[in-house]
C-alpha cells in the first residue's frame, strides 16, 4: 500500500516576523491613543479659550486621522506573514499536465520596441513545459504591420531558440537575458564542443534576428492605427514539412478598433484574447505578461501547477501571482525598482490567502472569469448568449468537453477565421452582460479577493484602493506646521510635556520598524532612504493627481485615459541611474508640487531658527518635521540649485516653485483669522 504523497507546496509561517509585527502594532497603537488623547483635550481647550487659531489644529488633526486610518489598514498585511515553497519536481508526468495559454499585450512599437516585446514572447515559448500544451498569444492594440512582421521573425528564430534552450537546460528562457549574463547552461554541458558550436550558431541567428527587427521598425510610429479591422494570424511553416508538435503555438491578434467604440484598454484586450484563444487552444489556465516582463524562470508555469494540481488548495484559488523583478538594477536603487516593499506585503497576503493582481505576471483559471461552476447544465442557449455573446462556438468552449477547432497544420479553416473575426470585433460585447456591466478582467483588477474573504483581507484591499489618500496628510503636514512655525502658532507639545513622548515614540517606532523590515529582508540601509523618498514622491505627486482625476471623472469633467509608458532606453538616463543620480526629465506637473513644498519647508526652517532659540522647546517638533523633510529630499535641492547636467530640474520649474511657495507663505496669515 502506497504511503501519503509528498506535498506540492508548503506554507511556512514566519514566526519571528509575526511576533515583531504584532508587538509593534500593540505598542505603537497605545502611543497613537495617547497622541489622540492629547489632540482631543487640546482641541476642546482651543474651542473654549480661542488661545490659538482653530483652523491649523483641525487640518493637522484630520491629517493625523487619515494617516492613522491607513496605518491601521496596512497592519493587515503584517498580521500573518508566511513564505510559500513549491516543489515542481514532484509534479506528475508531462502527459498529465494541463494546457496553458500565455497572453502578451502591446500597443505601439515606437514606445515598446519590437526587440523587447519579442524577447518576452520568446521567453514564454521557451518555458520548461510540454510544447504541445503551451500557446502564446500576442495582442497588438496598435494593429501595426511592424509588430506583425516582428512576430513572424520571432517565429523563425524560435524554431532554433526553443530547442536550444530545452536541450541545454538554460536558466534564462529570454534570449536577451541569456546573452547578456554569465553562462547559464547546465554545468554538464559547459565545456562541451557540441554546445559551444551550437551556441555560436544561435548567437549568429540572434544577431540576424536583431538586424531584421531593426530594419522592420523604421517608421514604427506611422504603422500604429486606431481604426482597423481584426487580424488574427497563427504562425506556422508554409512548407508544412516540420514537426509542429515540438513548438508551442504562436498567434498574432489585433482586435478591431473603431473611433467611437470604447475598447477598455488592457482589460478589453485581454477579453478578446480570452475569446480568441477559446476556439484555438482553450487552455484551462492562462498566464498574463506585460510586453516588457519576460519569463525569468523557465519553471514558472510548473510552479503554478504546484497549487492548481493540489486538490486541497486548487478549489480555493483563482490565480497565482508572481512578483515583478527588474533586470540590471543599479546598486543605487533610487527609484525602488527592486520592489522589495511589495514582496514584504506579499508575504502578508500569502498568509491571508488573498494576493491582489498586479496586472501582469499571474496565472489564472479560465473558469474564474467565466463562472462556469454556476452555469446550470440545462441552461437555455439564449440565456448564455446574454452573458457570452452571439458566438455559438465560444459558448461551446466554456464546457470542458469542448475540442478547439485549429487543425494540426495550424492553418485555420475559413469557418474558424470567420469565427475569429467575430470574436475579435469591437462590437462583440454590445448587448451582453459582460459588455454592459464592465470588462470582465477590469472587474478582477478592481476587486481581487473573490474566492476568499476575511476582515484582514478586506482591510488589505481597502488599503490598495485608498492608498492615494496619503496625499492628504502629506500636504497637511508639509504645509501647516512650517507656516505655523513662521507665524508662532504651536501645534505640538513642548519637549518637556509628557505627551511629547507619545509623538516622538510614534515617529521613532515607525522608522525603526521600517529598519527592521528592510534589514530582515537583506537590503542595505540606503533602501530606507530610497523607499521613503519614493513614498513622498508618490504622495506629493502621483496620488495627488490620481485623486484629482478621480474627482473630475466623477463630476463628468474628465474622461478616463491611458498613456502608454515608453520602454525606449535612453543611454544618458541609464548612466545617471547607474551613478545613483535622479533624472528629473519628467512633466513639470509632477515636479512643481514637490519642489514648492521643499522650498517652503527650507525657507520656514531658516526663518524659524531664531524663534526656536527664543522660545526654547515649544516649536521643536514643527522645526524637526521641516528639517526631516529637507534632509530626506536633499536630491530636490541638488536638482534645483546645484546640478548643471541635462537631468536637473528645469530652471522654469524652480522659478515657478519659488513663486508658489512664496504665495503659500503670504497666504499663511489667513490661518491667524480662524
Automatic annotation (TrEMBL):
Q: Does the keyword Ribonucleoprotein apply?
A: no
Name the lineage.
Eukaryota, Viridiplantae, Streptophyta, Embryophyta, Tracheophyta
The domain of life for this entry's organism is: Eukaryota
Listed name of the protein:
Cellulose synthase-like protein G2
Keywords attached to this entry: Cell wall biogenesis/degradation, Glycosyltransferase, Membrane, Transferase, Transmembrane, Transmembrane helix
Q: Which positions are tagged coiled coil?
A: none
One GO BP annotation is: cellulose biosynthetic process
The subcellular localization recorded is:
Endomembrane system
The record's section on SUPFAM superfamilies has: Nucleotide-diphospho-sugar transferases
Q: Which organism is it from?
A: Sesamum radiatum (Black benniseed)
Amino acid at each position: 500500500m502506497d504511503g501519503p504523497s509528498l506535498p506540492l507546496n508548503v506554507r511556512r509561517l514566519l514566526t519571528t516576523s509575526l511576533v515583531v509585527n504584532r508587538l509593534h502594532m500593540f505598542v505603537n497603537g497605545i502611543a497613537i491613543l495617547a497622541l489622540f488623547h492629547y489632540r482631543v483635550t487640546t482641541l476642546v481647550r482651543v474651542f473654549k479659550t480661542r488661545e490659538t487659531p482653530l483652523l491649523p489644529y483641525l487640518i493637522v488633526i484630520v491629517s493625523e486621522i487619515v494617516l492613522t486610518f491607513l496605518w491601521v489598514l496596512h497592519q493587515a498585511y503584517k498580521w500573518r506573514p508566511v513564505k510559500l515553497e513549491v516543489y515542481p519536481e514532484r509534479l506528475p508526468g508531462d502527459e498529465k499536465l494541463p494546457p496553458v495559454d500565455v497572453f502578451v499585450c502591446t500597443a505601439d512599437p515606437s514606445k515598446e520596441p519590437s526587440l523587447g516585446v519579442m524577447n518576452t514572447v520568446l521567453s514564454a515559448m521557451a518555458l520548461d513545459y510540454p510544447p504541445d500544451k503551451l500557446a502564446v498569444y500576442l495582442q497588438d492594440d496598435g494593429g501595426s504591420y511592424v509588430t506583425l512582421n516582428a512576430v513572424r521573425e520571432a517565429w523563425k528564430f524560435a524554431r532554433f531558440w526553443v530547442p536550444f534552450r530545452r536541450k541545454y537546460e538554460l536558466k534564462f528562457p529570454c534570449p536577451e537575458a541569456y546573452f547578456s549574463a554569465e553562462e547559464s547552461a547546465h554545468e554538464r554541458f559547459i565545456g562541451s564542443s557540441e554546445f559551444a558550436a551550437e551556441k555560436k550558431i544561435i548567437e549568429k541567428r540572434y544577431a540576424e534576428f536583431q538586424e531584421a527587427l531593426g530594419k522592420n521598425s523604421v517608421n514604427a510610429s506611422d504603422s500604429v492605427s486606431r481604426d482597423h479591422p481584426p487580424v488574427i494570424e497563427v504562425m506556422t511553416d508554409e512548407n508544412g514539412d516540420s514537426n509542429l508538435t515540438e513548438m508551442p503555438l504562436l498567434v498574432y491578434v489585433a482586435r478591431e478598433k473603431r473611433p467611437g467604440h470604447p475598447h477598455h484598454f488592457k482589460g478589453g484586450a485581454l477579453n478578446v484574447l480570452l475569446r480568441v484563444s477559446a476556439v484555438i487552444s482553450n487552455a484551462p489556465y492562462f498566464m498574463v505578461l506585460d510586453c516588457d516582463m519576460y519569463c525569468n524562470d523557465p519553471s514558472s508555469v510548473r510552479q503554478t501547477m504546484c497549487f492548481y494540481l493540489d486538490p486541497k488548495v486548487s478549489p480555493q484559488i483563482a490565480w497565482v501571482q508572481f512578483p515583478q523583478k527588474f533586470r540590471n538594477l543599479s546598486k543605487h536603487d533610487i527609484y525602488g525598482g527592486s520592489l522589495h516593499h511589495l514582496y514584504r506585503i506579499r508575504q502578508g497576503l500569502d498568509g491571508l490567502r488573498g494576493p491582489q493582481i498586479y496586472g501582469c505576471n499571474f496565472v489564472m483559471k479560465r473558469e474564474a472569469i467565466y463562472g462556469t461552476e454556476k452555469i446550470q447544465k440545462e441552461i437555455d442557449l439564449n440565456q448564455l448568449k446574454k452573458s457570452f455573446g452571439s458566438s455559438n462556438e465560444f459558448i461551446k468552449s466554456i464546457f470542458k468537453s469542448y475540442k478547439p477547432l485549429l487543425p494540426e497544420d495550424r492553418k485555420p479553416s475559413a469557418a474558424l477565421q470567420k469565427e475569429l473575426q467575430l470574436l475579435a470585433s469591437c462590437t462583440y460585447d454590445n448587448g451582453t452582460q459582460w459588455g454592459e456591466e464592465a470588462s470582465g478582467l477590469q472587474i478582477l483588477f478592481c476587486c481581487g479577493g473573490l474566492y476568499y474573504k476575511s476582515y484582514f483581507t478586506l482591510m488589505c484591499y481597502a488599503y490598495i484602493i485608498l492608498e492615494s489618500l496619503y496625499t492628504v496628510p502629506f500636504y497637511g503636514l508639509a504645509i501647516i506646521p512650517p507656516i505655523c512655525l513662521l507665524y508662532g502658532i504651536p501645534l505640538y507639545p513642548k519637549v518637556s510635556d509628557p505627551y511629547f513622548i507619545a509623538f516622538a515614540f510614534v515617529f521613532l517606532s515607525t522608522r525603526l520598524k521600517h529598519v527592521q523590515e528592510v534589514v530582515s529582508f537583506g537590503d542595505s540601509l540606503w533602501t530606507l532612504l530610497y523607499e521613503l523618498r519614493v513614498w513622498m514622491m508618490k504622495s506629493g505627486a502621483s496620488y495627488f493627481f490620481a485623486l484629482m482625476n478621480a474627482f473630475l471623472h466623477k463630476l463628468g469633467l474628465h474622461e478616463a485615459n491611458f498613456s502608454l509608458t515608453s520602454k525606449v532606453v535612453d543611454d544618458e538616463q541609464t548612466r545617471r541611474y547607474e551613478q545613483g543620480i535622479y533624472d528629473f526629465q519628467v512633466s513639470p506637473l509632477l515636479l512643481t508640487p514637490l519642489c514648492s513644498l521643499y522650498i517652503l519647508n527650507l525657507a520656514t526652517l531658516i526663518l524659524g531658527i531664531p524663534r526656536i532659540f527664543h522660545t526654547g522647546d515649544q516649536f521643536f517638533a514643527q522645526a524637526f518635521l521641516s528639517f526631516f523633510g529637507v534632509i530626506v529630499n536633499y536630491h530636490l535641492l541638488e536638482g534645483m540649485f546645484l546640478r548643471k547636467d541635462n537631468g536637473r530640474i528645469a530652471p522654469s520649474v524652480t522659478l515657478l516653485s519659488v513663486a508658489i511657495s512664496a504665495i503659500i507663505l503670504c497666504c499663511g496669515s489667513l490661518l491667524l483669522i480662524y
